[in-house]
Amino acid sequence: MESIELNVRNHMKRTETVQYPDFDQMLSSIEKNELRIVDETYHRPQRRKTSVAIIAGVSVAVLATPVYAAVQYDWSSILSKKPGIEAALEAGYGQQVEQSVTDHGVTLTVHTAFTDENRTVLLYTLKPEEATRGQEIRYDRIVLKDSSGTPIEGHYVQKWNAEQGVYQGYFETNWVMTEELSKLQFSVTNVRYLEDLEHEIHWNPNDPGTQQFTIQKDGIQTVKIQPFASSPGQVLLNSSVTFTDDAVQEQTWARIAAYDSLGNKIRETESPAYGTSGATGEYASQQKFSGQLLKKKGNRFALVYTHEKGRTDGTWNVNLSLSRKQMESGSFVKTLDIPLHTWPEEASIRELVVTPTQIRLVLNHQDRRFRMPYQTLQLDVGGRVFEGEVGLEESDSHAGKTVLRFEPTDSITVDIASLKNTSITLIGKERVDVHKGSDVPVRLTDISSQPQTIRTSYEGYPVHWTYYIKDNNLYVESESPDASFGGINQTYFVEGKESMYLIPQFYFGSGNKHTDMYKNFNGTDLDLYVWNYTTKNPDDELRVKLN
To answer: I need a surface site. Which of 21, 208, 327, 372 has the fewest CB within 10 A?
Structure first.
């Protein structure tokens, strides 16, 4: 079975090349109640269901006096993406909790808690039953509640520690304590033990048509595979899975596995996208392979899916009493008013919040669709670099505010006392701008199963449009030889006075190729409009001094 860390990378696109999120497409899909984005963003899954290791849950913690942990664990592996927390832990900071609850042979322990003006983090272990140790586990619910029983939103990551027979994990939330003392309850409901199963399918990689296979097993009904010629030498597999059990669809992670004649796994050439919503609600995935490797003789193919092998029903509650006594002395908050003039929307940096484990910038703006037009965000703090990301959940829920969070690149806590004499600079690299599409349509004529390509000048950029009918659906591919053209985000046609949007199919981070689908198309001509498109300027750099 593949490790939790691999599952996290696959689900959340933890490729260390940051891909620019398709915010307009995301927002439009949300407004239309259909999230169909294939492109995935840094540290933000586009998957519509629960991730393997990151679940909408909760965490809480406190940055207090140095303590000595009652139970010694090595947290460096699980905190490899959280060097600020790791540094605080190594320095001996954190509120010692060491509270456990055991039921049905399962023990949940909260070990250490951290909190500051930016976030709260909780380190925990879960010891499963003896007979089921080491398997991937999930929970029906994992949540933290305040004293009134209100859930506090957050997420978790965990990993199996074979030597000590426990799952080590951390909970993280943007929730910050506002009282000197908080009474909370951390709760896990129903532990589910999972495994990866394979069902061999006799897929023919040399057949360009759609192939469907009946599974009728473990709640899975069928899997359909559509191959598409992608970039030179690449084959894109678009697979869709239908289920006989809705509960299975909500919890599984299905994908196509390819093996060579020696039984070695054939790896994807780009990070795959799993669990997007298909045109009729099926579970859709996109995987790109080398065509040469995929079509070799002797290859074997299988549908791999997550299956619940067993479960332990019950509820594990840990009551916490956390203090924020020293939180004020470990944080630095500064009100700013620094306008940002490098893009059309009016915006300004309004607040800087520095803690020993993280730095947060708060931006104010008028347009709720505002976005930072840079793929890479960093803070230079006296020569020390912090990597940043946009807090999407905060941007979406608070109109007029965008939050940027920055993690240190090394395991050294921030020296709050020295900040007054330290230069802090916001850096943005690799600019990507989103533009509204033109009112002039792209005309597609003589549409048939035979692919046709037309070349247009779209808003001054050369764009090649390839369109064809496949399985009664119209596919429209757009691509530009100009590397500064970021790509077409979504297309639509007008029927009466209504705009009818095509369904985005494939939008990977590399290049600018994009594919939309018009389901059950039966015409021969179509006027197609572009909703929006992006342009790229990889050499553009933003630098804003914050003090």
So the answer is: 208
- Whether 374 and 432 have beta carbons less than 8 Å apart is answered as yes
For every residue of 489-506, DSSP letters joined together read EEEEEEETTEEEEPEEEE
Q: How far apart are CA 121 and CA 110, in angstroms?
A: 11
Cα–Cα distances (Å) from 75 to 38, 83, 163, 164, 314, in that order, read 33, 11, 13, 12, 27
Strand order in the sheet with 106-115: 95-103, 106-115, 120-127, 166-173, 155-161
**Contact in structure between 316 and 104 (CB atoms under 8 Å):** no
Phi and psi of 393, rounded to 5°?
-65, -30
Kindly report, residue by residue over 208-227, the tens digit of the pLDDT: 889 999 999 999 999 999 99
Q: What is the pLDDT of residues 370-416, one digit of tens each?
A: 888 999 999 999 888 999 998 766 655 567 889 999 998 887 777 77
pLDDT digits (tens, 9 = 90+) for 351-373: 999 888 889 999 998 877 788 89
How many whole angstroms from its chain centre is CA 131? 33
The 3-state secondary structure of 245-301, one letter per residue: CHHHHHHCCCEEEEECCCCCECCCCCCCEEEEECCCCCEEEEEEEEHHHHCCCCCEE
Nearest alpha carbon to residue 52 among 201, 153, 159, 198: 159
For the chain, what is the largest distance between any 2 Cα atoms, rounded to a whole number of angstroms? 74
The whole-angstrom separation of Cα 102 and Cα 177 is 28
With tokens 């018009």, the residue in question is 518
Which residues lie below 8 Å from residue 328, measured CB to CB, with a gap of 6+?
none
Burial of 107 (0-12, 13-18, 19+ CB in 10 A): middle
Neighbours of 225 (CB within 10 A): 23
Q: Which are the contacts of 130, defined by CB distance < 8 A and separation ≥ 6?
A: 105
pLDDT digits over 429-464, tens only? 999 999 999 999 999 999 999 999 999 999 999 999
CB-facing half-sphere around the CA of 362: CA atoms within 13 A:
18
Which residues have C-beta within 8 Å of that of residue 25, sequence separation ≥ 6? 37, 39, 489, 490, 504, 507
pLDDT for 206 beyond 80: yes
Q: How far is Cα 299 from Cα 210, in angstroms, rounded to an integer?
A: 18
Residues whose CB is less than 8 angstroms from the CB of residue 262 and which lie 6 or more positions away in sequence, other chains included: none
Residue 409 near residue 386 (C-beta atoms within 8 A) = yes
From edge to edge, which strands make up the β-sheet containing 181-201?
Answer: 151-152, 136-145, 181-201, 300-323, 255-259
Task: Enter the pTM of the model.
Answer: 0.77
Q: How far apart are CA 246 and CA 240, in angstroms?
A: 15
In angstroms, the Cα distances linking 168 to 110, 126, 162, 359, 506 are: 10, 7, 10, 26, 36
Q: Which residues contact 207 (CB under 8 A, 6 or more apart)?
A: 227
CA distance to 299, 315, 384, per residue, from 291 (Å): 12, 49, 43
